[in-house]
Structure formats: structure tokens, C-alpha cells
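Our collaborator T.R. sent over the components below with a one-line note: 'Predict the complex.' Nothing else. No constraints on interfaces, no templates requested, no preferences about which chain binds where. So this is a plain run: every listed entity goes in together, and whatever single assembly comes back becomes the starting point for the next discussion.
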Amino acid sequence: MLGLLLKKLHFQRKNQNSKKASVQHSSPICLSKNLDENLQLLKEALGQSSDVIIRDMKISSNSNVDAAIIYIDGLVDRNLVNHDILQPLMLNLQLIKENVSQNHSSLIDFIKSSVLTVGQIIVADDIDRVISDVLAGHTAILVEGVTQALLIDAKGWKSRSLEEAKNELAIRGPRIGFNETLRTNTALLRRIIRDPRLTIESLQIGERSKTEIAIVYIKGIIKDSLIDEIEQRLKRISADAILDVGYIEQYIEDNPLSVFSTIGNSERPDVTAARVLEGRAAILVDGSPFALTVPMLFIEGFQSPEDYYARPHYASFLRWIRFLAFALSVYLPAIYVALMSFHQELLPSPLLITVAAAKEGIPLPVGIEAIFMIILFEILREAGLRMPRTLGQAVSIVGALVIGQSAVSAGLVGAPMVVVLATTAIASFVAPSQADLGALLRILVVIVAGFLGLFGVVIISVEILSYLASLRSLGVPYLSPVTPLDIRSLKDTFIRAPLWAMDSRPASLDPNDTRRQSPDQMPQAPKTKSGKRERQ
Amino acid sequence: MKRRLCSKISAVILLIILSVLLSGCWDSIEMNKLSIVSGLGWDINPDTGEVTLTYQSIIPSQIKSPSGTSGGGEQKGIGTLQTIQLDHSTGSSPYDALNRYTQHGSRIPFYQHTQIYAFGKDGAEKGIYGFLDTIARNPVSRPNVLMVVSEKKASDILEIQSGMESIQAFGMAAEIKLSAEYSKYPAVTNLEFSNRLMSKTTAPIATMVGTFEENGAEGKKIQKIRITGTAVFKEDKMIGELNERESSGLLWTIDKIKKGFVILPEASLEIVKAKSKIVPELQNDKIKITVQIDEESNLLEYKGHQNMTTDILQGLEKDQAKEIESQVMTAVEKSFSLNADVFGFGEAVHRKYKKEWKDLKPRWNEIYPRIEVAVKVKTHLNEIGDVNKALMKH
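Returned assembly:
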């Protein structure tokens, strides 16, 4: 079955590849000297869309040179275009000497170097480049008799302002989250890491969306081959559109059919920066308030930004709470089912009697009961999530109360099962990034427990663990540093060691520069000549 | 190549799914198809030799749950039998009886949570080997079930509600464990019983339980159970019993004193720490056993109306030592008269004199009553409870 699915997927991929090849091999069209011809080409390419603005004008001292600017209304900052592009071109250019204006090719250099008071200007001679940049929000200037176009970065559009990260909350630590504008997001990262070696590489992916992608990493820290690998995987993508980082994630995964996510994501600049500083690369996509980080280790699902801002003891304790909660959310219903239908002798006698009393008169076998309740819970959760926000809470509360309470009093579901499910549900929210994974594993383990009891639970756990150990995230073992064991990196797994003790970057990422800080930084009280005086 | 791999993989997946689905859940039993047996009784008909098993099973729907949605038996007080149900089945052997249970039971009996194995006195005197053999062979029986001998029939003590627990057998087990914790009577699990049985010289013991009547509310007579002594077995047959004092002496000797009280005519003492050791000595074919007891206690009450002095404290220590010694000696005398080595003296000799033991073992029955026993008690009275000045003087 799985094999058939794989084959189908493979076939489709091949088809796409061949199509892509045929599209890419058309040669670029250069700009001609004739302005009208160029404008005609652009109009054909951009169509008759109402948001495409083509503004003709005459520049130079005696207004004898035809020129035009082209931009997309709404993507550019109108003030900037009016004051810093149109005004200098139409007014200031008249004041300059005539000999410059006679020579068209030197005219465009002159405009670029001395007239326009804007930052980024690109000179292009390829009409495709002009079209794509105009669509990205650049303003193009075309001049009669010149085979080059000036592409001015005057982007300016409405975007959501920066807000608090909503899904990765931390009580202590920065609040800000990414927004949908790529440039803002890279700026947020740049503001945290002012290292000149912080590199932001850009790519365009998407046949139609032409989405800007940025790979962010620190040269000198990250393993070089890792960057090559990421670039290679990104360049292989040939999709219609990239609407979110989730698209990218699915195209570059090591194990695309696995339920385990091997690509990390975060909506917090501080988390992304921390991962980049450890020797990972971040992938940002224009239009998505999330950053992907690769490689991802399994342990990252249990690390919270607050772990590093709070003091180490409590942070380590919370790590264990998260491990426990994840284990509970996967195993609790399964263990309950196994104990209730196979191993009644394992419960302490008073507990067994209480549970037996609650189970009396329940018509369903406990395994069916568990699956019924799990699915009911998932339905409630999804309904609460998808309903309009004002209705959502009411639905989930009413649903839970009505269904939970009345199912028990009607004798359809045992009260202990509701307790088990409620505990499971709460536990699954402790590590939210693992919640979807937990839901799938939970159902799998419950089914196995219903057939084989604790024996099955043990077998499926061994299967899951060995499968986890076989996973890779861009070549890095998913379970490292636990297996393969790297004792030095364990400082940030089961415990969170104090920051001054974490001298080296995670070795499993194989960074170029392993040293994070100078060692022996444990803070100490100032030494006085006699210890006694200090105590007084 | 790829096609073959795919078909192989799908064959394996199909096999896994089929093996799970076809085998089904063969070992699974739903909770509400089980009858949890809390106590198991065993009686023998002296005339026919037939075995009667008494099952005390829990009725789950009658257990009062805190929310009151199930059960809801507000009127059910102590003395009623609604949380448990008694079933009897009779057969030529324990398993024959067990087998006949299915003739009248609606659920599968579940023995893993059994608390009590109760034996009728008549049956115990005839020998309980048949029952012990059955439970030793059965994988579902647990080694920590308490062994109890009823003064009359086993079913008598299993049907009387006792203690504060809602399940009768749990209540009885709790009573026995409490009395063992306060060092009154031993609590004997079936593992300990079997170990004693297997040692050949050591006599197995069990807790003796009897019934008594009490005046309850509205002039009703309420039946209750209480522990009356320690049953002594010779091999698998019960031959006699130890009373309260003798049971205490037994516990002192076999190092089973945890906490409890020593009651003297003039004072009561609370045992804080106690340790004992059996030291055998073999001299010219004569065995001398020294029981060394180390004890530490607090003063709880004193009837002397005097100011406490060191002399009085030392006197109390001596009296206490004497009392403990006399408890041990009465137990020893009783065991000599029964000729049952309840203390495990034989095992102590065996451990120390391995070579000589081969010669002693076959004659143990003759040797045992002639053993010379000495008791050495060291007591220490803590100064806790030591009120210097008497509250009221004579």
C-alpha cells in the first residue's frame, strides 16, 4: 500500500521535473534602445492590470529625452516615488549641463549617481528581470535610447505591525514575534546578531508567486556543507507558489513520509537567533511569520525559550515536566486500556475495586471506549479551533461538559476514562509543538494496547524509538545528543545547565567554531583577604 | 527491482495486520466480566472428606463511589453483606471444587487480588496440603495472601462484616496486619507458610480468627470477628494454638516485634526498637539455645505516684526484661508441649552446625523438647515520658 503511494508520488515528481525543464530554457529578452518598444513589451507582459502604473515624462534640461517610470500601485511608497524619483528627474535634471543629457548612456549613469536620492538602485538590461522586480515592488525607470533600466527599491506597502508571538509564549524574555514581511523579519534577526558574518542569502521560489526566500546563517559557525545542502534542496523546489514556510518544509524534509517533523520552526526572533548561533540555518519566507530552522533535533520540541531566561534549576525541572507530559499524552490512555483489559492484577487492590465499580454497566469494551473518547476530544478541539473566535470557547466548554458529564451519567463511558482523557488532553498542551504528533501516536498506541496489552505497548515503543533513531534532519541524527551519545551536549537536554557552563555548541551540528564562550565563567564572590570580614 | 521491493513491503505489512486481526485479543478480559475474589475459604467435610470452597467476591456496583452515581447505598451499614457475595462449591479436591464454580457463577473468578485464605479448624486439623499445592501451582495466585484459621468453619468468618473497610476480606486483612504491626499476633503470608513447611523442622503458623457478638444499636446483636491466637501446624496439620501471651513470646523470639506495648503491673511501656537473635550452641550432643533480645522503650504510664528517680527507672527496666523473658519462656514451654518448632531453632542449628545437622535432623522430634533455652534480655528505657515529679502524691 505504502509502496504504491510512494510510486505514485515519484511518478508525479518526474512529470513536474520535465515540465520545469521546458520552461526554463527560453533565452532572456534584452531591452532595446527604443523606449516605445520596451513599454510595449512590458504592457504585454504585465497585461492590462489596473494597478500597473506607467508614467511617461520628458527629462533633461530641454525636456527632449523621453523616459517612463513603471511601478505597481500599492506596492510602492507613493511619497518616495513622488519626492525622490519624479521630482529629481523632472525638476533637478533641468538644471544640469547640456552635454551630459546629449549622451543617453552616460545620462542613465548620471541619473543613478547624482540625481536619484534613494538607496538601492539596480541596473538591469533583461526585460524579465525588470518585470519580476516591478512585480516585487521595485520602481523601474526606462530612458529612450538606453538599453538598461534602473530598478529602484521604493517598496512600501501596508503590513501588520509587529506583535507579540502568540504561540510560543514566555513569561520572561522578549515578546516580539515575526510578521509577514521578509525584510522586517531579517531586520529583527540582524538587530539581535550584529555580527558582520551573519549572512542573509536570498532566493526566489515559486513559478508564479516568485516568493522571496532568505537563508540566514552565520559564516564561520555553520558547517559549510550544510549550507550547500540547504541551497541544493531549496533550488530543487519548483512549485507554483510558496504561501508559507510550511510549503518549504514539506519540500526539503529528509523523511517526507514520517509523522515526526524534522524541520524546526519558530515565530520568535530570539529563538531563531539562538538556533542560528548554535550553528543552524534559518529559512524565512516572505509572507510567513514563521522561520524554519534546520537541522532540527527531537529534543528541540521540549525546549522552550524561557528555559534559557529562567534560572537553571526550575528550567531543568520544567524540562522533566514536559517529558512527562508528552509521555502521558501518548501513553496514558493506552496504559489504562492495557491495565483494564489485560492486566487487572497490576493495579493496587483498592484502586482496582474503585475502577471496577465505575466500569460496572459500561456496555463498550474499554479499548473502543478509549478510541471513542480520543476521537471525540479531537473533534471538540478542532471545532473549538475553527469556529469563529467568539463561538469557539463556548462550543468547546459546552461540548466537553455536556458530552463528558452526560456520557458518564448515562453509563456510556466510565468516569475513570474521562479522567484519563482529560489528563491526556491537558498533558498534550504542555509541549504544543508536539501536540499533533502526540495525537497520532496516541491513537496508534491505544489500538496496539487494545489488541496486545502492555506487551504491545512495549513493542510499539521499541518500534517508535528505533524509528526515531533512524531519522535524520539534514544528515544530523534526530535523537542526538542522546543517541549517538555525546555527553558534553547533554548539558541542554535532560537538564538545562547554567549558561556559563555551556561552553560549546551542540557537537551533533558539527559547527566550524565549536567554542561558544570562554570557559570558567562561573560567577564568584569577590575574594577578600579574610573570609570572616565578608561574613560580618 | 523497485516493484519487487514494494510488493515485499506490502506483503509484510499485510502479514502484520492480519496476524494482529486474526489472533485478536486472546488474553483480554473486560473488567465487567470478572468477579474479583477477595477471600477464599476452605473447609473439609469430616465425614465424606469433600472439599468446600467459599468465594467471597466483590459486587462492584454496590461499592459506594464518591459521586454517588453508582451504588448509593446510604443505608448499608456494618453488618450487612451487600458489597460482597458468598458462593460455595464442593468437590472431591480443591480443583474439582474450583471447577464447579462455573456451574453457578456468571463471571470468571479473579484471584490476583485475594487477601485472605481462610481454613476451617476441622479442615486444618486434617491437613491443608491439597489446597497449598493447588495455589502453589496456579500462576495467578499471589504469595502475599494472609493465612487464617477460623475457629469454626471458614465460611463463618468470611461472611461477617468487619473493620471499617467496605470489603470484608480487606477489613480482616487490615485487622491482622495492624495486630502484627503492634506485635500482638503474627501475620503469616502463604509464602512464609510454605517456606516453614518446606524446612521440615520449622512448624508453620497461621493467624487464628474467631467470632464474637456485640450489642449494637436498637438491641441488635452484631457479629464481629477478632483475632484469638496463633494456630500451630505440624507439617500441614494444625495441632494446637498459642494464646495472646504465647504469641507475643513467639514474636519476640523470631524478631517480628516492630512496635507495641509491654504492660507491667506498675507501668506501661512503648516499644521503640527491638531486635532479637537466636544463638544455638552444641555441646556433647546437647543443644543450648540463647535468645538474645535488645529492646528500647519509652514510658507511657506509671501508677506509682512517686517522683521519678534513676532507681525506679532501672527497676522498670529490670521488670520489663523479666516480663519479656517470661513471655518468651511460656511460648517455648507451649511449643515444647506441642513438640512444634515454631521458632525455627532447628534452622538456626542447621545454619551454625552444618555437619552435625545431618545427624540431628532425623531425630529432631526427639531432640526438640529437651533443648535448653536461655533468654537474655537487654532493655533500655528512654527518658521520654519521664515526668520527674508525680502529678499527685500519696
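Summary for T.R.: The mean pLDDT of chain B is 84.
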